[in-house]
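User: These chains co-purify. Model them together.
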Amino acid sequence: MKTNSDTFIGCEAAFTAADIVLFGAPFDSTTSFRPGTRFASRSIRGDSYGLEVYSPYQDKELTDYHICDAGDLELSFGRTDLALSDISETTRMILSHGKLPFMIGGEHLVTLGAFRAVAEKYPDVHVIQFDAHTDLRQEYLGAELSHATVIRRIWDVIGDGRIHSFGIRSGEKAEFEFARAHTHLYPFHLNRVEEVVQKLTGKPVYITLDLDVLDPAVFPGTGTPEAGGVDFMTLLSALLAVSKLQVVGADMTELSPQYDLSGASTATACKLVREWLLALSARQL
Amino acid sequence: MKTNSDTFIGCEAAFTAADIVLFGAPFDSTTSFRPGTRFASRSIRGDSYGLEVYSPYQDKELTDYHICDAGDLELSFGRTDLALSDISETTRMILSHGKLPFMIGGEHLVTLGAFRAVAEKYPDVHVIQFDAHTDLRQEYLGAELSHATVIRRIWDVIGDGRIHSFGIRSGEKAEFEFARAHTHLYPFHLNRVEEVVQKLTGKPVYITLDLDVLDPAVFPGTGTPEAGGVDFMTLLSALLAVSKLQVVGADMTELSPQYDLSGASTATACKLVREWLLALSARQL
Amino acid sequence: MKTNSDTFIGCEAAFTAADIVLFGAPFDSTTSFRPGTRFASRSIRGDSYGLEVYSPYQDKELTDYHICDAGDLELSFGRTDLALSDISETTRMILSHGKLPFMIGGEHLVTLGAFRAVAEKYPDVHVIQFDAHTDLRQEYLGAELSHATVIRRIWDVIGDGRIHSFGIRSGEKAEFEFARAHTHLYPFHLNRVEEVVQKLTGKPVYITLDLDVLDPAVFPGTGTPEAGGVDFMTLLSALLAVSKLQVVGADMTELSPQYDLSGASTATACKLVREWLLALSARQL
Amino acid sequence: MKTNSDTFIGCEAAFTAADIVLFGAPFDSTTSFRPGTRFASRSIRGDSYGLEVYSPYQDKELTDYHICDAGDLELSFGRTDLALSDISETTRMILSHGKLPFMIGGEHLVTLGAFRAVAEKYPDVHVIQFDAHTDLRQEYLGAELSHATVIRRIWDVIGDGRIHSFGIRSGEKAEFEFARAHTHLYPFHLNRVEEVVQKLTGKPVYITLDLDVLDPAVFPGTGTPEAGGVDFMTLLSALLAVSKLQVVGADMTELSPQYDLSGASTATACKLVREWLLALSARQL
Amino acid sequence: MKTNSDTFIGCEAAFTAADIVLFGAPFDSTTSFRPGTRFASRSIRGDSYGLEVYSPYQDKELTDYHICDAGDLELSFGRTDLALSDISETTRMILSHGKLPFMIGGEHLVTLGAFRAVAEKYPDVHVIQFDAHTDLRQEYLGAELSHATVIRRIWDVIGDGRIHSFGIRSGEKAEFEFARAHTHLYPFHLNRVEEVVQKLTGKPVYITLDLDVLDPAVFPGTGTPEAGGVDFMTLLSALLAVSKLQVVGADMTELSPQYDLSGASTATACKLVREWLLALSARQL
Amino acid sequence: MKTNSDTFIGCEAAFTAADIVLFGAPFDSTTSFRPGTRFASRSIRGDSYGLEVYSPYQDKELTDYHICDAGDLELSFGRTDLALSDISETTRMILSHGKLPFMIGGEHLVTLGAFRAVAEKYPDVHVIQFDAHTDLRQEYLGAELSHATVIRRIWDVIGDGRIHSFGIRSGEKAEFEFARAHTHLYPFHLNRVEEVVQKLTGKPVYITLDLDVLDPAVFPGTGTPEAGGVDFMTLLSALLAVSKLQVVGADMTELSPQYDLSGASTATACKLVREWLLALSARQL
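Assistant: Joint model of the six components:
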């Protein structure tokens, strides 16, 4: 009889043995347009069994590395502050054991919880953001903690010149102005990822992937689909490139599986998780 | 050219001329299982044009009464406290003009916002609840303001013996025990509605309708479908019965239109809105 | 190798050998709210293979009778008048061979095409209507030929006292007034079917079944779901009862299969087709 | 951090401590019309968290009993014989430890695997079947092992007079004749369940619930929806009644969650699992 | 309280103050394959609030221009001639006030209504068509007014050499022959748009965008998806290019939102509306 | 009245007159992840009427050739061996009349049935595979006959160096090792198709197209979507190229229409069928 444990395929290491600890942060309470990212981590685990553990792109197998899928946090849907502090606490605990936290959202705001813990340990951390949206508002619908403000809140922590944003193609005019003044903005494309990788070599880096950086053709399963995005192979190459850096935290957010009944968005997210985990694992050995 | 104003069919009175003011409270931020009630009010307005303004059940027409559809509140998805106070403020304003507030949720928690304003004006108000769930938890996932606690929060305001709950068929053991000790609980059925109407005659009453009191066969478009509910004609009769009381506030919550792609749940909600508005209007003339 | 002919299960008699001729009228060009009934006949044929040819209700088998499924008409979507005259012509041809026409819509307006041919042959025909809506408007959105006017157009042909309507629960006030003045209206229920069967014994009868007479719980797959309808067994009993009359034409309209992704509405329509064909066949032997 | 074990709510007893062992048999390889029951057990586990552990119907809580959710079998989709023998082996193992096997299908054929093991231990076992279909074919599409033959295969094991079938409303003529000759057939309704319970008191009984016995209004999420079924409360009462017998094995089959996007069918199946487990647990104490 | 007016985001100018007047023509009565474009304008308005008013592509904001969203026409579904003359009348009225008509379909036939009014005022107008289909049939299913004949009917008005068609990849052989003889046909690609812009400089141009010119990967939400189309950025560039011409009328047709449950097609249409309105507005200042 | 025969558009030649015989093999009994390819052939036939018979890519019309759509096989869902031998028998019969078999699956395993018959007649046949997956397992879940083993079973028949695989991007490590040792593997792309066409000129070739070689953006309607595939025009070019060879059998598998509710995947499959049939027909004349 199969065990009824439910992990991402090939991520069955015990916590103590793991180099990377994957966990889910199923929270979408501030999503204003179309909710549903709360279902992402469960959906990714289940559909990961449509994948193989082997990557023909990297010629590596997940089962050759030590990755623990620690399950999902149980987060409050009524209190954003509590949800974020629970995420911070878990991330802090993972970091304190010398392991790499790899979080699956949830809406993009969950990044703030993980990032705060990472920034405590690595105060000189840089952030690489793959995203369709700037997420740089000062507040949104009266809330300072929102999916639409998450990168602004990260900027509150680390300040100018430490955020590197790729693929951005949506935001308010003021957000774009803020981005140009205070961050490194590479809109529309991922063309200059390699150049940034050169600059950041040797520095601690947190990578946050909002999956809506992908074109909606490739990834319709997200709350706010934004035409004009990148394709799968472009994103995969970029992820492999940045994973050669000294990555100290990583997350993938904004899959809303129920908006893509074909399952293709979830399958694409699964494949990105596998490839990214392999790239990060290879780096760490 | 048709105007692009968007109201519930037949509810085009100006605010100042209206006896009843309908408004939407599109908020589902604390919904823990499956969100989506935020889409209810917009969906109900649009699909109301599949209805007639005439009710063959009551032989009355909406256009013979004065009802204003005042549109939707724009509520914060990150801050539950703000959302509730915005709802209270609107309700208070409607009441201050001597009009009846009729709110369309949204998750059941929005009832708390409206009820608080009603209870300020009518401190001796009773509550009639049609619902599948007790909603009597003290807290849920760390939050005291939650769809699962809303009736408990109302009890905090008005205390023992003033809440009359029909159709309840789900909850924790402790909630049922609390219900039996502190409220009037009529589980599973609506059989005793008429009896309660007798008792409450002459008293101010707030009516809150969580649409999941209906059987999922009739109403699958809700976040937490709960088998064993009542059918449409039973609920309609009960609504007509309680509308003969001195109703000082009313709401209908928990339609999640996207879970019923057939549109039947939204159509059923529309028909209940029409019938209920007619019954409340007739009472007021 | 199975033939790629596509008929309703058990209806494979040649036209010349048949007592009943089933045909599809996939037209929904005047449907104002939600179109899709054009897909009904194809969907019913395909899903009929989820049924058996045997009815345990009547203890009869379709294959013991002679029924020809003659396929679908190809109707103009731009010209309502052409579509109706094509339907009339086909019906006339079937009648001229002494066979019973059994049409599957399409929107309810297709009934007019079939009925006109029937009324030519049987000028004293009565109509039994099972429906949620009166369909008695004089015109609708500027058109006199519309799903919302079909029964009024039939009244134009046969006049007062010859239309018997069951299950009606929606319409404009003026339509209900017209119905009470000029037709036999039995709203909300099918309780008095047997009584009407008594009265119409020996007279030619055309039966038109708008499937939205069923409750949306049972039959969500229709363009304008209207709560408060009848259940399957009630409708089945009524159909069996009226089929004992001298039926000279019959139709079933308003299945929109795509609004019920579960397939249950189509399956229910298939079962009604089987039962009705058996009842009509038995009568003829 | 929540464990990432994935069990039905409240069924977290260790195997050794359990009185009842729930397991999934995700197999639908012989389903000829519309597949998908393979997804049922996973779907039921996930959505069970929309329920409470407490039943207001029985005033009992799942957590007061000892139930182990042992997860899903991994069954071959290419070889029906292997799949069935794997199910038999697991059932035999559970029985050998003195525990009650409670299987969640899968298509109805999985019942044969479990039943064969039960009949080895209890050769005088009776079978109570709740179902829309007779499932009594000798073979189907060339296969003797099929969802459409499962009760015939059980009859092969136990012979005449030991099968008691309720709610049946579909099948070939020959199947109905076989049923009347060799089994106890109570078609269309569950009215005579209590009478059969009287007769079977003191005898070992295997109960197989094909969820399509429910009306499609209540339970559209199944491969072959069949109009005219029973409602939820009727089935619940029947299940509680038969659970007072000496039940030696039980299963629930034919949920296809993807055909009911509203989730209501899965929610209904979850509620039946909870109620049935409580009734069977109470009996055993 | 938000007003319940329902406009495209940022298009709230009064009619008198507007330079561009957007209106919806929700009509799909001649659609023969899969209807649903009637739902497009309402869907675009609602989902436009998932966009920003700011375009990072053009560095402009909608709120800096004067655009009136005048709502939807109420068109007859039974009489194509009436529907078209209603569209013509509205377009004529907009033109008579010196404003630019910008119509959102509906099926492609609605273009004929708007174009007729435009051609009255600008008899020397050219037409630029972005489309997957030629739409050049003389008649279709007996109707001369059909989505499949619309460009032929436009040719009836303006004759040879005035229609410039891009992206075409589907049609009958005779339609392609007609296109090569009487129009400028640039099949499969948009490569030669710039060349045509050169040629038409200074001439009045009507632009009609059938969204199925996009690849179904990018835009599955349409009645007749046709593989091998262009991507979003290619279409956006082409729209910006042609908007530099003297545009005297514009429309966008053939979104059927319900065929793309992910919402990505509607979101893409919204983004094209925003970008196109900005390009047309900038030109007019 | 239209006949109710149901063929792919323009494929109405009688068997005896045909050069190509199209047939469906609706079987998906070994599909382990998400079933549904059984619905493909019926869906392709129905939606083919959204296409024209004319190809602007090849400037040819289906109706100028002789193609028979012979309908669907009725295959056993319980016995894989029977299903495959039925497919072999049909293919053998088609070949014995000197016609080209063109099969529409079903899951990829159906290829084995057709291929076995082809290899009997053409023992030196080569295989060209377009696919996302290697399908080279020795066994899968205990079954040697499985969608995951089909190319391995073909290798069993024809041995080393005769299988040419394009677009592969998923499989176990051992499968890729096997592929490199025993077959010609051209992973990820179709770049080297022309080169292989050169090599195989004059040799009999069987072409098997697993539609999941397409990117999920283009073709989400498949059981196991695998990101990183090719686009439509690339596949079309490759199909036209290989069709110039001496093709002795061809199939297209793995459309699961129900996973792409937009219908775009089915439409794309239809277009590929049309183009492929035209290319194969032109070759034969």
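Chain C has a mean pLDDT of 95.
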